[in-house]
Amino acid sequence: MTLDSKIPAGPIEQKWDNHRFAMKLVNPANKRKYHIIVVGTGLAGASAAASLAELGYRVTALSYHESPRRAHSISAQGGINAPKNYPNDGDSVYRLFYDTVKGGDYRAREANVYRLSQVSNAIIDQCVAQGVPFAREYGGLLDNRSFGGAQVSRTFYARGQTGQQLLLGAYSALMRQVGLGTVKFYERREMLDLVVADGKARGVIARNMVDGRLESYDGDAVILATGGYSNVFFLSTNAKMCNATATWRAHKRGALFGNPCFTQIHPTCIPVASEHQSKLTLMSESLRNDGRIWVPKAKADKRAPNQIPEEERDYYLERLYPSFGNLVPRDVASRRAKEMCDKGHGVGTTGLAVYLDFSDTIKRNGKAWVAEKYGNLFDMYKQITGEDGYESPMRIYPAVHYTMGGLWVDYNLMGTIPGLFVLGEANFSDHGANRLGASALMQGLADGYFIIPYTIGDYLASNKFPKLDAGAPAFKDAETSVADLTKKLIAVRGKTPVDVLHKELGKIMWEYCGMGRNSAGLKKALALIPALRERFWKDVTITGSADAFNQELEKAHRLADFLELAELIVRDALLRDESCGGHFREEHQTEEGEAKRNDTKFSFVAAWEFAGTNRPPKLHKEPLKFDYVKPSQRSYK
Amino acid sequence: MSGTMTITLNVWRQRDRNSEGRFALYTLPNVSPDMSFLEMLDLLNLDLVRKGEEAIAFDHDCREGICGTCSLYINGRAHGPLKGVTACQLHMRTFHDGDSITIEPWRAKPFPVIRDLVVDRSAFDRIMAAGGFVSVRTGGAPDANTIPIPKPVAEEAMDAAACIGCGACVAACKNGSAMLFVAAKVSQLALLPQGHAERARRVESMVAQMDAEGFGACSNTYACEAECPKQISVTHIARLNSEYLRANLT
Fold first, then answer.
1. Looking at the domain assignment, is residue A205 inside a domain?
2. Pair A577, A501 in one domain
3. CB A228 within 8 A of CB A428
4. Which pLDDT belongs to residue A323?
5. Does a structural domain hold residue A410?
6. Which is the most buried residue in A331, A407, A617, B223, by most CB within 10 A?
7. Which of A172, A190, A237 to mutate to test the interface with B (most CBs of B within 10 A)?
C-alpha cells in the first residue's frame, strides 16, 4: 500500500482554491441519486449531514445518542479560533496556520492546516447566521479573547459554553433537514462494522440499542465522525459513551490508523477523589491567566494550604519559566505537575494534585472581579469537591482530554478505504502532536461545513457504484460477524464486570503511556495489555441479553476494541523514539526537561495497518515536509 | 473524606416500553460522600452484575451537567434536591447515612419509558425539526459583524440558549407541559435579528408540533423554572406567548 496524501500542487495559499476548481462536480439534479451514510452527529457529523443534504444528497445519519444534541462536542468550554482580525492585533490566515503548525510541534500536514485556517472565518459567519449567541461588546460587535499558544486574540466564545452553542447550531441545521425529509436520522444506533464491497466503503452495520437488532445501512459513501478515543484511559474528560468502536472496526476492515500515540493531557482538571471516580472534569485553562500554581517545598506536607507560609511554597512554573510562568503550553504544565507529585510534593488526600491559588488575585482585584470572570468554574469546582475555591486554593491535576491521532485521511479527508471519509477528532490530520486550545471546534466544523461537501462530490462523480442493497453478501457477512462477536461476548460468562477491566486497562495506559513514556515502561505495557485482553475474553461478565436494551453489552463491545487499540497506541509510542508535543519520551529531553524532537528520523506520520488480532501491525510512513514553517525547538522560557 | 454511608434505594425497574414496571428495593453500603449520584448508581450496578442480575439502565453521558442526557427523578424532584444542578452533578454528600432514596424516570406521557430509568425524548427533536432553526444554507452567510447586536440582547438570547434539552421542565410540570423548552428556543431566535425572518412561522410550527406530541398546557405554576438545572426563566414563556399572538395577528 502506498500512502498518497493527495496534497494539491502550487503555493500553499492557492492549493485549496486550485483543488476546488480541479475537482469534479455532481450535477444538482444527480445529487439526489447518491446516498451518504454519516455515523456520529456531533459537530463534524451534524454539520456534514446538514450541508450535504442542503446540496441535494440523500443522507442517513446515525448516532448512539438519543439525539444529535447530546454529542460530546457540547462539553467544549473555551471557544473557537478564527483569524478575523477584528481586534486589529495583526492576525491573519497565515498566522493562525503558523501557530497551529508550531503548536502541533511540526507533526501536522502543512497543506491541511493552511486550509483549516482559510475556512475558519466562514465558520464564524455561518454560526452567527444560525443564531449562535456569541459574546459581544457593548457596541454590538463580536468579542474575542486570547488563548494558549497565540499572541493575538482570535477566540470567539459563548460564555463558557461555546461547544454547546456551536453544536446546537449544527443540530438545528441538521434537524431542519430532518424536517424537510432530506436526512433520515436514526437515534440510539451504534455502528459495529463497516461494510466494504468491491474495495469500497458501502455501508455500516449498526446495533439498535433499544431492541438489540442488527441493522444494515447501505449507501454510496460512508462518513465517520465518531470522535476520539481518550476513554481508552478509562478516566478522561470525555463523556462516558465516547469510544473507538466505529473507527477501530473500520481499521480492522482496512483503514490505516494515524499517529495513535498522540494524546493530549490537559493540565487543569479536578483531581481524582476516590476509587469510584467514573470520569474527570476539566476546568477551562483560562484559569491559569490569574491563578498561581504551587506545591509545598517540603515533601508530604500535610498542613492546610493556608497554614503554609509564602516562603515555604514553590511556585514551580514561575520559577522554571520566568517569562511564560503559569501560562506555559498544556503539555509542559501537565508534565511539571506530575513531576512535582512524583517527587512527593503533591497535595490533597491522594497526593496527586497541585494548588491553583487565586488568593493574590482576590487580594489585588477583589472577589467580585474573580467571580465575574471565573464564577462558573468556581461553582463547578465546589459542586464536585464540596470545597470553596475562593477561601482556599483549588486542587488540580492533569487528565487525558483529546486524541490528535485517528484514522489516516488524505487531503480529501478520505481514508485508505475508498469511499470512507473521516471527520473531526476521529481523523488524525490537523493538530500534529499537540492541539492548541479552541482548535477542536474549528476543525470539526471546517471538516463538516466546508471541506467534505466539496471532496465527497469529487469521489462520487469519479466512481461508479453498482447497485448494492442491504441483502448483498457483503452486508450479510458483516452482520453475521457482528452477531457472532456479540454471542461470543455474552458467552464468556465470567466473573468480572466490564468497568472493572476497563479501569485496569486505564491504569496500565496512564502509568506507562500517559504523560511521560519510556522504552522500558512501554515494553512492559506491551506485555500487560495482551494479558488483560486474554483475561477479558475469559473472565468478563455481561448480564442481560443481546436482544434488549443492554448497557453492559454496549460497554463490552467498546472495551473489546479499546483493548486492541491500546496495544497499537503503545506500539506507536515505542516506535516514536523522540519527544514531540504531547508525546514525551523521557529518553529525549533537553537539559531543561523539554520535549526534544528528532526531525531527521521522525518527521513522518505513522500509519498502521491492521494485520490480525495478536499479530504485529504493519507500519506505513507518510513523510512530512515543511516548506513554509521551518521546524525549530519550542521555547517558553 | 469522612466515613461511608449505607443508602436504601427504591428504583423503578421496567423491562421495555410495553412491560409493566415496578419499584425494586436495594441496600447499598460503602457509599462515599465524595461520589457523584451516578457513581453511586455505578457502584450498585457493579454489585448487581457481580450477582448475575441485570444492571439498572439509566441515561448519562458527559457527567458535567451540559449534555442533558441524565434524567432522574430523585425523591420526587427532577434532578434531585439541589437548585440549578443536574443529576450527574449531584454528589452523595448531599445525603446522609441511612437515607432512603427513590429514583424514577421522567414521568410524562410524551416521554415513554424505554427501560428502567431511560425515557424516549425524541419528541423534543421533532419539535426542533418543526421550526427550531434559522434557515441558512451552509456558505451563504454574510460577515459575522454585519449586524451589530446590543450586548444585553445577545446576553438574554444566551440565557435562553443555555437550555440543555433534558426535559426536567416537562417532568416537573403537573400538566407535562413543554412550554419552557419550546420557549427557550423561540425566545433565543426571536431576540436575535438573524431569527426575525421566520419568527411567525417558527413559533406556529413549534407550538403545533408540541401539541401534536401530547405535551400539556401551561398553567403558570413555574415548577419548570424551579427545577430547570440551567435556571431558564419563565419570562421566556411570556415571550413565546407574545410571539404566538403576534404571529396570529399578522
1. yes
2. yes
3. no
4. 81
5. yes
6. A407
7. A172
CATH (domain of B21): 3.10.20.30
Q: What span, in angstroms and rounded, lies between the C-alpha atoms of A354 and A374?
A: 19
Distance from CA of A386 to the nearest CA of B (A): 8
Task: Please give the backbone phi and psi of residue B201, each rounded to the nearest 5 degrees, phi first.
Answer: -60, -40
- A549: nearest CB among B35, B57, B128: B57
Residue A125 has pLDDT above 60, yes or no: yes
Whether residue A332 lies inside any domain: the answer is: yes
Q: Indicate whether A310 and A199 sit together in one domain.
A: no
Residue of chain A nearest B86, judged by CA positions: A383
Whether B158 and A50 lie within 8 Å, measured CB to CB = no
Q: Is there a single domain that holds both residue A180 and residue A291?
A: no
- Overall number of domains in chain A: 3
Q: Name the 3-class secondary structure at B232.
A: coil
Looking at chain B from residue 87 to 126, which residues have their Cβ under 8 Å from any Cβ of chain A? 89, 91, 93, 114-115, 118, 120-122, 124-125
A75 with B64: Cβ contact below 8 A: yes
Q: What is the pLDDT of residues A225-248, one digit of tens each?
A: 999 999 999 999 999 999 999 999
Residue in A closest to B70 by C-alpha: A70
Rounded to whole angstroms, how far apart are CA atoms A83 and A76? 20
Return the closest-CA partner of residue B162 out of B50, B217, B86, B89.
B86
Please tell me whether residues A393 and A488 are part of one structural domain. no
* pLDDT at residue B1, as a whole number: 45
Tell me: do A365 and A426 sit in the same domain: no
For testing contact with chain A, the best of B62, B143, B159 (most A CBs within 10 A) = B62
Residues A433 and A419: their CA atoms lie apart, in Å, by 27
Asked if residue A631 is part of any domain, the answer here is no
| Residue-level pLDDT at A287 | 86
**What's B180's domain CATH number?**
1.10.1060.10
- Is residue B79 domain-shared with residue B136, that is, in the same domain? no
Residue of A nearest to B119 (CA): A66
Measured in angstroms, the CA of A334 and the nearest CA of chain B are apart by 22
The predicted pLDDT at position A92 comes to 98
Query: Angle at Cα A592 formed by Cα A588 and Cα A593, nearest 5°?
Result: 40
**Residue B208 touches chain A, beta carbons under 8 Å:** no
Query: Structural domain tally of chain B?
Result: 2
Residue-wise pLDDT tens digits, A493-513? 999 999 999 999 999 999 999
Query: Domain check: are A23 and A37 in the same one?
Result: yes
Residue A37 domain boundaries: 15-262+404-462
Put simply, the chain B residues between 28 and 87 with a CB less than 8 A from any chain A CB are 32-36, 38-39, 42-43, 45-46, 48-50, 52-55, 57, 59-69, 85
Shared domain check, A231 and A108:
yes
- Flag whether pLDDT at B158 surpasses 70: yes
Using DSSP's 3-state secondary structure scheme, residue B11 falls into: strand
Higher per-residue confidence, A366 vs A636: A366
Nearest CA in chain B to A211: B16
Domain boundary residue, one of B115, B139, B168: B115
Which of B88, B115, B142 represents a domain boundary (last residue)? B115
Of A131, A495, A548, the CB nearest to B192: A131
Q: How confident is the model at residue B167 (pLDDT cuts 50, 70, 90)?
A: very high
Helix/strand/coil (H, E, C) string of A220-283? CEEEECCCCCHHHHCCCCCCCCCCCHHHHHHHHCCCCEECCCCEEEEEEECCCCCCCCCCCCEC
Q: What is the DSSP letter of B8?
A: E
Query: Which grid coordinates are listed for A282?
Result: 476539566
Q: Range of B173's domain?
A: 122-249
Q: Which of B34, B50, B195 sits opposite A274 (nearest CB)?
A: B34
Helix (H, G, I), strand (E, B) or coil at A26: coil
Residues B107 and B134 in one domain: no
Residues B195 and B219 in one domain: yes
User: Do A526 and A453 share a structural domain?
Assistant: no
ipTM topping 0.95: yes
- What is the SS3 assignment for A324? coil
Does the structure show a pLDDT above 80 at A313? yes
